TrEMBL record:
Classification via SMART domains: POLIIIAc
Record domain Polymerase/histidinol phosphatase N-terminal: where: 6-68
Pfam families for the chain: PHP (PF02811)
Domain of life: Bacteria
UniProt name for this protein: PHP domain protein
Single GO MF annotation: 5'-3' RNA exonuclease activity
NCBIfam families (UniProt xref): CehA_McbA_metalo
Amino acid sequence: MYEYVGNIHLHTEYSDGSGSVDRVVEAAARAGLDFIVITDHNTLRAKEEEGYHKGVLVLVGMELNYRCNHYLVLNVSEPVPSNDKDPQAIIDEVRNKGGIGFIAHPVEKGSPFYEKGLTYPWTQWDANGFTGIEIWNRLSQWRDGLQSVGKAAYLTVVNPHAALVGPYQEVLSRWDELLRQGMVVAIGGSDCHGVNLKLGPVKLGIDDYYLAFRSVNTHILSHRPLVGKLETDAMVVYDCLVKGSCFIAYDFFLPSRGFLFWAQDRHQTALMGQSIACKPELSLYARTAFPARVDVIRDGAVCWRSYGRYHSFKVDMSGVYRVEVWHELRGRFRPWIYSNPIFVVPQD
Ligand SMILES: [Zn+2]
Ligand SMILES: [Zn+2]
């Protein structure tokens, strides 16, 4: 398997971001990313700059809608018009065009220090046909942490990472619920705008591209390597995202490269996004690059917990299994990795 690290969901000066594609690429290369997906608001203007720059594969999608129901659209060649009120229409149009779509930052808490608490939530949970959900959005969650002057100062000046507490439980519960009906792929995004926040005369690079690209990333696992050609490699990335052969990781404190989650018995193996029959000798395995705590989630509830680098769990019932991984930092566990699920189906 080939693993590639990417940052999905970010803005450039083609919409309300501050950086040119060049500046964004510079930061991505410095952060060691293999690919980025630029998703400016309601425009595909960056499309002309798709391709390899400084060794980074630059792909261009867009983020649709204004006041609510933000939707990330990938793999389309023409812009799709927004429709705040009827996101199902957008989902269907993207699908008809052969594109991929993710519900963006579905739950936001808002902050009194940012647009007077304004949020951009997803409201249409009866929608269907979307590829997946952005279960963890860096900028949105950082902003949600700004609840008092003291908290705002701490998260802005001292420790921005403290705001990043992992995907919201409401979002994970929605996702687990949807997974009962079939595959819904989870991704993470930075939503970086590269905007310097000003605190009096001091400029703070909290929404800095480089910092963001070392935080919430989406890692893809592919049987095919990237070969350095835009069209072929774009399909490798999109294929992994559609199938759910990917995981989300907060890479700042510990790089998560090397993480693997799979199910196996004597005759068959399943990776993230795949199904496997529930046979007597079936086990789930996880491998982490550093010692960590692994929580195995079955149908939305923790069913097993283990510590170390190699983890195995004997499966005795069917269900949707995924893992959440936490690493220790100064005596506390920090959210690190969120896998996509493996479906253990009844044996026929
Ligand atoms: Zn948005
Ligand atoms: Zn955005």
